[in-house]
Amino acid sequence: MKKYVNFSVNDFVTDDYFQYWVSHPAEENPRIFWEAWLEQHPEKREDVEEARAILESIRFSNHTLSHEDLTQLWDRIRDIDNSRELKRHQPGIARGWYAAAAVTLILMLSAFFLFQQQKPWREYHTAYGETKTVVLPDNSQVILNANSTLRILKGWDEKADREIWLEGEGLFSVVHTKNNQPFRVRTDDGVSVDVLGTVFNVYKRTLKTTVILKSGQIRLNLPMAKSQEKILMKPGEMVEFKGKKYKKEEVDPQLYTAWTQNKIILNHTSLGEMVRMLRDNYGLEVKVTDATLLEQTVSGSMPLANAEELLQQMAKAFQLKITRDGSTITIEE
Q1: Strands of 36-161, DSSP E
Q2: CA-to-CA distance for 39 and 134, rounded, in angstroms?
Q3: Is 297 exposed, middle or buried (0-12, 13-18, 19+ CB in 10 A)?
Q4: Contact 262, 304 (CB under 8 A)
Q5: Residues 36-88: tens digit of each pLDDT
Q6: Which end of the chain is more exposed for a tag (fewer CB within 10 A), N or C?
Q7: Which domains does the chain have, with CATH numbers?
Q8: How far apart are alpha carbons 236 and 200 in whole angstroms?
């Protein structure tokens, strides 16, 4: 992971993911990530704003900078770091910094031109009702559940840390590397999972993130209200994070990963949980005529196929009438 907490203005200006956020401010994932990070590190807000101002001040026209633009950019970088650092150093050190900054400027401009043209990551996506196995460049595997998205930066396996962004649900089987590259999964609410080699499931929908450890060991980083909390998880443990609070309990991981084998294992599973799955995984709108029905529970297993077969299985298991009109489902006694 890039140690953003130790970044200077210069570091932010030349960082790939920071540049992409500045050049694509309307894109949801980088926006949510940086907003969450700033909420956790308010002391870095000034540096971030200065770096963003530098990048936004560059005026591109057919990807060519005029002499005036280059001068303006150089002056912005020099003035900011002069005011913060160089006044405390000797002139010889300052001259060395200028040489390094000149190289940094060239690298930054080259990178920024590239990101104006294309996204810096590779994206994997599943449609409603679809699961997919993704083999990552290091041979780690991710089984993506329906309606899920996985993103990795290009050149991912060549970076110091292997970082992944997840929306939806995925089962991760992580390969240990010879140089002990950390493997990190991030969600848009600021939760991250650190691992060297293990199997675990991450679920992130709406306002809740759930992590279930099947084997190995992971460290969970949670953005609590006042500070970040780190939790070491053991196999068979589940952590749910919602609203800056979390709870940890022991579970049977097979109950939560059976979807990778195209089935559901039900253990006093409520109709409410099944309704949530219909919405998240199949994109269906569900209407329940009596809210108390959502509290009914069943145990057993069901095959996971298409939505129609699942609805038939649910009607039989809960002994309810389920009708479908397009993408709208009605459940009644």
Answers
A1: 121-125, 132-135, 141-144, 149-153
A2: 32
A3: middle
A4: yes
A5: 888 888 888 888 888 887 776 654 433 444 445 545 555 555 555 555 554 44
A6: C
A7: 4-117 (no CATH), 121-255 (2.60.120.1440), 262-332 (3.55.50.30)
A8: 10
Token pair in block for residue 160: 């110091």
Cβ atoms 282, 259 nearer than 8 A: no
Residue 326 buriedness (CB in 10 A; 0-12 / 13-18 / 19+): exposed
CB under 8 Å to 92, separation ≥6 — which residues? none
Specify which residues 250 forms β-bridges with. 237
pLDDT band at 145; cut points 50, 70, 90:
very high
Give, as one character, the DSSP assignment of residue 303.
Answer: E
Q: Are strands 183-186 and 132-135 parallel, antiparallel or unpaired?
A: unpaired
Rounded Cα gap, residues 51 and 23, in angstroms: 12
DSSP conformation letters of 155-210? TGGGSSSEEEEEEEEEEEEPPPPTT---EEEE-TTS-EEEESS-EEEEEEETTEEE
Structure tokens at 254: 């097979």
pLDDT tens, position by position, 128-144: 999 999 999 989 999 99
Q: Scanning the structure block, which residue is given the tokens 């956020």?
A: 21
Task: Give the CA count within 13 Å in the CB-facing half-sphere of 310.
Answer: 20
Per the document, the length of the chain is: 333
Tell me how far apart the alpha carbons of residues 78 and 291 are, in angstroms, rounded to a whole number. Answer: 63
What is the reported pTM? 0.63
Give the contacts of 68 (CB within 8 A, at least 6 positions apart): none
- HSE-CB at 71 with a 13 A cutoff on CA atoms is 3
